[in-house]
Amino acid sequence: MTVITLGSPLNLEEFLQIARFGAKIEFSPEYCRRVIKARQLIEKAVDENRVMYGVTTGFGSLSTRVINAEQVEQLQRNIVLSHSTSVGAPYTVEEARATMLMVLQNLGRGHSGVRLELLELLREMLNRNVTPWMPREGSVGYLAPEAHLALVLMGEGQAYVESRLMPGKNALEQAGLAPLPLGAKEGLALVSGTTTVTALASLALYDMIKAAKSADIIGAVSLEVLRGVMRAFDPRVMSVRPHPEQDGTAENVRRILSDSAVLKHFEGTRLQDALSLRCIPQLHGASKKTFYDARRTLEIEINSCCDNPIIWDADGDADVISACNCDSAYVGIAMDSAAIASTMLAKMSERRNNRIIDESLSGYPAFLVDNPGLNSGLMLAQYSQAGLLGDMRILSTAAVIDNTPTCCNQEDYVAMGYNAAKKALQVVEKLEYILAIELLSGYQAQQFLDPTLARSKVTARILEDIGKSVPVMKEDIFLHPHIEFLRDMIHTGRLVELAEEIIGPMK
């Protein structure tokens, strides 16, 4: 079992190892030192009866209301109870785990003032697979879903243990854990920050990057089956417009198809291809740049303190600074942009697929099936692409341009990054399905391509792997399970692994 130590910066892959693949967590000595020191500062400030936002005052527009020392702990419990207002379907296990990890990252920077014991409890919930029940709808960037997580730490709310939903207290007991009453600052710290926003965004972006590499592979399969022109991928073309992602995409396709006897045989038969084929480096490259820029943003966010207020060590005294690191604009803008980039990949994929199934464009039987008319072949698979693409276009409308003031106009500007991250998960899932349908067409078209012409090693390996589970369609068949199989091949990274086994790491 993989064990990852928190305390030094995490990258996106390490984040996913914990959130999706179940790696265990431990804390470094430096992580513990930071947390303990910040807690000592808060306790000293409370003992001195200092006025601190969210510690000895109310929250938001109630920040002018002073709370006496005897009510400090009740205040933290109250904020969790009153903020548990999100509704609807709950997070998936990996979405909840990603949020828990982000809370550990956020509060473990040593600028929040929570107890180490609280973070150790949250760590052990992750390690022992206790997953809070967190309704996903009704957040503007933080607070409500996180409050449902915090309930479980208090022994309230609900949580899953081995897929069984039960009261939070019972879930902790079953895992050999005990709840903790919240101390000064802890309720506010648990619900504050870009934790859910960054958690959901990280899951989506990881899949977007994988889908973009898969799009290079699937585009290459389509290029081969459509007997495409490789001059559009010439390094000289890339050198006069030196975007590294464009050049990397062209190199990926050249490496995948370098030994294709199909392309060699048809070389010189036409001057250029349609844009959906010859513009693969430009469009895929631009999308990848957007994803890689977003990755840089998210990895900064993953390793930041996004709490409010923050605790600063001012020569042994706590300087409690109320500001707005909990703003989600960085992640929101990045994920709105990533959604647009994903939709760009999808719209090109659908057009390539259309060229394969259209007999007037490909020269193959209509919809890649014998006796079209009696059989519909892959006609409706393209309809599904069109429907999915329509959804993606709607979801690509920017969330962050919206604004609904909250908290009696104390929070008169709201970044809406949560909605950007949430819809990015929907966008990438639909992209995976659209790419899967293009791959299905590329696979089915092989039966009509001259069998004496060798496919590239990469294409041949992929077709062989698909053929173990997907039949060659001679007449109409039940297509849904095969689309799901190919989507899973993309989502799990299996498709990229098959290509990289032959050509090495893709760019």
From TrEMBL:
Source organism (scientific name): uncultured Sporomusa sp
Record carries keyword Lyase: yes
InterPro entries, sorted: Aromatic_Lyase (IPR001106), Fumarase/histidase_N (IPR024083), L-Aspartase-like (IPR008948)
Pfam family membership, one: Lyase_aromatic
GO molecular function ontology, one term from the record: histidine ammonia-lyase activity
Top-level taxon of the source organism: Bacteria
Sorted UniProt keywords: Lyase
Enzyme Commission code: 4.3.1.3
Signal sequence segment: none
PANTHER family: HISTIDINE AMMONIA-LYASE
Name this protein carries in UniProt: Histidine ammonia-lyase
